[in-house]
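Structure ticket #2291
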Amino acid sequence: MDLPRVRVYMPAYEPKKAHIRAAVESVLAQTEKNWTLLINDDASVRESVKSYVQDFLGDPRITFRRNPKNLGIGGNWNECLKNDPPPPLTGEGPGERGLVAFLFHDDLWEPAYLEKMIAALEANPTAGFAATNHMYLKEGEVPAVSFYEELQKFVQQNISPGLHEHRMFLRWWMERGLKPNVIGEPSFVVLRRSLMEKVGPFNASMVQFLDSEYWARCLLNADWVYVPEVLGKFRVHPAGMSAVNEGLGRGVFERFQTLQTVVESLPSEEQAMGNAALTKALSGMIEQYVTRRKQGRNVSGQGGGGLKTFAFRHPIILLRAIAQCCAKK
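Resolution: structure written out below.
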């Protein structure tokens, strides 16, 4: 049997029936037909996920599984990969590992999504992954919707179509503190499995910066290609994890942790640039912490231990960050 060109993974948790069915239907509508789909339920309690998709399981390309216990966002992404391994290596070339595409249970693809993403990667063999432009669908009262509008405008103004050399792009992104997430949500990124095997699993301890952290590690190893055509829809609604994370202020330290990881992997000639990015990010984090406390908003303590360790190991960077923060006042 021919191997699928793309293995599609749909990590699900407490999805609305209409949302997950629409997501699966958008996979079935793809012009590229050589794919498999694994729907992986992260031990949902309130929703009967399998019953929602039962009638789709007659398609031999679609399978369903449920985690024995809840693993969280990153854990569920990793579980998808773990439970759908590619065949053993045969030495037939770098493309034999195939491609991986995530589609979250409340997002949607345009029919030509897979076809055009595959074409972009085939036309750019040094690219380890491709990302595409997409729309944001607002449902209900979502206070963070302006954030998505500003992000979309920023990407249009700063990210050119086509291939981006990984070192040059990573340097530009680091100088901005790895923000905003210009590559985008995983639902609109297709990756070579060979790159994912090199980069390793998603950092399951993270919540808010999980995807950006992974893109940064990918950029240490491979170029990427941007497809400017709108090929999908990201649903923004109060029940979505993005809205929940924004509301709770989780992951305040995760961007800084990611910068640390990247800087440690940089060649010696780029360490000065990396340390400058760390200083700038730490200054911004201190300022954000103070602002949130003044506003009475929640500040996550996740990663605080790692931050203290960093401060003891790099007191000069800490002092520079405090000086930068004070200079803004």
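Closing remark: The first strand starts at residue 6 and ends at 12.
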